[in-house]
Amino acid sequence: MKIDGAKIASYLQKVLKKEVSKIKKNKPHLVVFLAKADSDQVSFVKIKSKLAQKIGVGFELIKYEKPPQFIKFATAIRERSHAEKTTGVIIQQPLPSNLATDSIYNYIPDLKEIEGVKKKSPFCSPIGLAVLTVMKFIYGKGKYTPDLFVDINRDRVFFKKLFKNKRVVLVGRGITGGRPIGKMLTEAKINYISLNSKTPSPESYFQNADLIITAVGHKVIEPSMLKPGVVLINVGMRTDGGKLKGDYEESEIKNIASSYTPTPGGVGPIDVVYLYKNLIDATNLQHKKVK
């Protein structure tokens, strides 16, 4: 069964729009920093901008045509982050090499760091939450309810019990995919095996897996590696013949996997929804603090 991430995201967007309508003053306002204006990153930012307009929150883009110096970039982040109007900040990844350090997030107040990078951030990683949402949808019989949004404190028992006797494999350890997903699996008390490019004989782990999450960016899954009924969730992206694809060929695995996410239209749309879920939660937390 192909999991329609766009349909899941569309439902969750409607839930968020209702939440935004309840905020009467000082609506959520997102500031996005784009330090490297290449075509891929610009397209990702446009997706975020369109969703902001759809659910009724403020959106502000600070774009650099050429990568700025670290001090200039950090100063701009600090100034915009501390502005009263700003309730959430995103630093579009990946960053140029001269800016690529997690310390850049230290210039954002904890209650506005909605990507969940900082240790003291009260927010979970959107991509990690998106993957857990897909898992919840698949194993929760495909129910469309507001509870589809993952609350890690509420849902930890559900995930722990559900995956107690299942073999989960995570492929990849990048800063925008494998690393935050692994962190969320750990938060959810889900035991998993982490594989990367240096893992010997990865196919031996694939053949016994009940769930495989891929976050690589090139084809790593062959149909011969899979057992019938496996669940496949892809986060990685690659371009092949002008088409956007994931870490497996859907035509090769669709009759083997019991459920799988497509690329595009899988985890990605849900990931963007969680950025705004975190933004709304951040706004509400900031309002409470002021009161």
Key attributes of the depicted protein:
about 290 residues; 9 helices; 10 strands; five-stranded parallel beta sheet; alpha/beta; three-stranded parallel beta sheet
Strand content: 5-15%
Largest sheet: 5 strands, parallel
Measured as a percent range, the helix fraction is 25-40%
**CA gyration radius, whole angstroms:** 19 Å
Report the mean per-residue pLDDT as an integer: 94
N-to-C series of helices and strands: HEHEHEHHEHEHEEEEHEH
Q: Helical element count?
A: 9
DSSP summary, beta strand count = 10
Q: Strand pairing plus helix content: what structural class?
A: alpha/beta
Report the span from N to C terminus. 48 Å
Strand order of the largest sheet: 5-4-6-7-10
Catalogue the unreliable spans. none
Shape: globular
Question: What would you say this structure looks like, in words?
Answer:
This protein has 291 residues and is an alpha/beta fold. 38% of the residues lie in helices and 13% in strands. It has nine helices and ten strands. The strands form three sheets. A five-stranded parallel β-sheet has the order 5-4-6-7-10, with helices on one face. The protein starts with a helix and ends with a helix. 36% of the residues are buried. The mean pLDDT is 94.
